From TrEMBL:
Name the record gives this protein: STAS/SEC14 domain-containing protein
InterPro entries with a match to the protein in the record: SpoIIAA-like (IPR021866), SpoIIAA-like_sf (IPR038396), STAS_dom_sf (IPR036513)
SUPFAM superfamilies linked to this entry: SpoIIaa-like
One of the Pfam families matching this protein, by short name: SpoIIAA-like
Protein source organism: Salinimicrobium profundisediminis
């Protein structure tokens, strides 16, 4: 499930992912991201993962399509989580985007929030 957090405004989107992300999550998320791109050109994304297990196949496809089409539209991405694979996932993203991408442990979430807002 994907929750849109209250810090979302301007070119900053803040989300919390738990369990598996589904197509319904992307039906809610993609219009917000497209709106940010239209209005601000660049996206700053605070992506918090708590008990995150991954993507359902259709949701993974929607995520991949958006990321490929908008790879140069991300300015900064703060990945916040508590699992080692989430840290690795952050490192895997770096060659495919011009954005600054940084991983923060969940107990340092406030540092991730401050960093994404700079």
């Amino acid at each position: 499930m994907l929750q849109i957090l209250g810090q979302t405004e301007g070119n900053l989107i803040a989300t919390r992912a738990t369990g598996n992300l589904t197509e319904a999550d992307y039906d809610k998320l993609l219009p917000l991201l497209n709106n940010i791109v239209e209005k601000h050109k660049k996206i700053r994304w605070y992506f918090e993962m708590e008990g995150f297990e991954g993507w359902k196949p259709k949701a993974f496809w929607e995520d991949l399509k958006f990321d490929v089409q908008h790879a140069n539209k991300f300015e900064k991405v703060a990945m916040v989580g508590d699992e080692k694979w989430e840290d690795w996932m952050t490192d895997l993203m770096k060659p495919f985007t011009s954005a600054e991408v940084k991983f923060f442990e969940i107990n340092h979430a406030s540092e991730g929030q401050k960093w994404i807002e700079k």
